[in-house]
Design goal:
The chain is mainly α. It has 6 helices and 2 strands, in the order ααββαααα. It has one domain: Herpes Virus-1 (2-Layer Sandwich), CATH 3.30.40.
């Protein structure tokens, strides 16, 4: 019974899955079954469900407290190729991610966003720093993302 009230219990996984099921049906094909969605994302093979971009463990909102930062780890569905770039509502175009990465990624493609995260991680590794969190929170990340987004619009997704 204790696991129902713990973000560490199996109940978190099933609540995250239920959230993803609803989001996929809302943004994509409303006729998809839970099993089809679970099979696509391989939920049955996972002990915990993590963000595709930052690998943060997703925590369902029921476990959040008003003063914690767990809302950043709330489950979300992202369009790998954004709708703004004519991305489809097909299951193959969806990524399971945390709310924070979904908001920060904005209209970038998944590939571009992953390259940005990789570049920051490589910088951290070379310089012995931990800039990823600061980089994602900085005002200038938005400006950088806007520049990249404008290039994508003029050059197309890569």
């Amino acid at each position: 019974m204790k696991e129902l009230y713990s973000a560490d219990g199996k109940s978190n996984k099933y609540l995250v899955m239920a959230t993803i099921h609803g989001a996929v049906r809302r943004w994509g094909d409303s006729m998809l079954t839970d099993d089809q969605i679970d099979d696509h994302f391989k939920f049955r093979d996972m002990e915990v469900i993590k963000c595709e971009y930052c690998k943060k463990r997703l925590i369902h909102r029921v476990f959040h407290k008003p003063d914690d930062n767990l809302h950043k780890a709330a489950p979300s569905i992202d369009h790998k190729i954004p709708q703004a770039m004519n991305g489809s509502g097909e299951l193959e175009n969806f990524a399971v991610c945390c709310h924070e990465c979904n908001v920060i990624k904005g209209s970038l493609t998944a590939k571009t966003f992953k390259r940005l995260l990789k570049a920051v991680d490589e910088y951290d590794e070379r310089h012995g720093t931990d800039m990823r969190e600061a980089f994602l929170d900085e005002w200038w990340f938005g400006r950088l993302a806007e520049t990249i987004q404008m290039r994508q619009v003029t050059e197309g997704p890569k």
